Amino acid sequence: MCIAAQVLSQEPAARCRSTRDSQGWRGRSSSGRESLNGQLLPWDRYPALSEATGNTRDDPRTLRNLHELPIAAMMRDLFGARVGTPAGEGTRRRHLLSFWSANEEDDLDRRRSLEALTGVSPDAVDLRLNRITNTRDYVTLLLGGGSSRWSNVAASAAFSSWALRKPVIAHVVGRQTYLPLISRRVAFNARSVAAAKMLDNGLRRVIEDGTALGIRTQLQPLSDRYELYAKTGTLAATDPERPTSRILLVVIARNERGEVRNALTLSFVAERATMGFATAEVGRFVQQHGEDLVRLMETP
What is the pLDDT of residue 8? Predict the structure, then answer.
């Protein structure tokens, strides 16, 4: 139905129409604090959620059944997150046993071959959308808090999947091929690829004139030869004075046909750090190991 404006901006809720607009909104909002066009112009709309969520003008704080929405299936199939509903192949484990095999079949509950490695395997991302019951918790998750907890391994794999437009499995075994679930391969269709491309410019500009601008000089030798995309993040979780600092950086080399011939993802996260700490560390790492990184990028 519609999310009331006061949930996001503390403004009184306005009345909203009962019909859904084709652009994904339902009714005019009295709040002018939200913008979706990148030009700091007010959107003046209520977002339209599925009626299955139970979110209405009269009950704006209630949410349910988020795990049954299309966004849940996309987060599960595109990026491997657990959302509260099983993949088409079955329920997946809370740990990434595929880290040892590069085969996502090993992440399924019914597979027992690598179960002994559970205790030393990375945690899978579990967004727990089936447990979210109010709009504030949902907004918190969308902003990177709450149950949106990504390990270095999972974050690297997800960012690489976005960059390469196909499912990537983080693994430590020396395999020439890896085996994602069929549901994940199918999810990267033409529509998903088109949506992924819409992020290209923004993630490229993180380095050019955004939050990673401070290390642009250190990254210049790589950016002169390859495509670079980055995402930074700072989250004040337990101690506002010592936030968690993170950066993801992907380097892409293309052939003469524009196809990806090689890629490298760097992920750095520091808990109880300072704002920009992770970004500065990645800049120093690239500056010190630039020749090694180029050698890796040029290795078939």
Answer: 31
